[in-house]
Write a structure and sequence with these properties.
Structural class: alpha/beta
Radius of gyration: 16 Å
Order of helices and strands: HHEHEEHEEEEHEEH
Helix content: 25-40%
Strand order of the largest sheet: 2-1-3-4-9-8
Length: 183
Amino acid sequence: TENESRSDKVQRHLTALNRATLSAPVQILIKHGLLSSESSFFDYGCGRGTDMSALKDAGISVGGWDPHYAPDNEIQSADVVNLGFVVNVIEDSAERVEAIQKAFSLANKVLAVSVMLYGPEQPGKPFRDGFLTSRNTFQKYFSQGELKDYLEHALGQQVFMAGPGIALIFSDKDAEQQFNAKR
């Protein structure tokens, strides 16, 4: 079908940003005391590695993997795993759930998942359950509630919304209770 052939051209790696500051999910992890120099951090879908560089400079043990920018890096478990703006760029719904489950399986303490939320207008043409942009990237947008429900369904775990488009899922129930108590 036309839909199938167009997916061959999806350029996921073009969505990776060059940032001068830590990403929003990493800032939230630090703000809530979930990421510190005592923690290990793994960025699943690290893109260009901006968060990893900044955290390494801050003395945090970091690792990361990306299918385009760091495909040869080891995929490893860590206290804190970040799946930052990855879920929304995967055009295959089964692969999207696989990525969420794989990332959660790596998290010794907490997984942070962040996505793009719906904006005033959707760029691009409808494609599968999202949109193909003019740059041949895919975007699936969520509302806060949709993201929470989607992750709870994919993982069978309680999901905590920590910011706009940012969810935390705890594999360590003590850490979850501490987080809840501080809220």
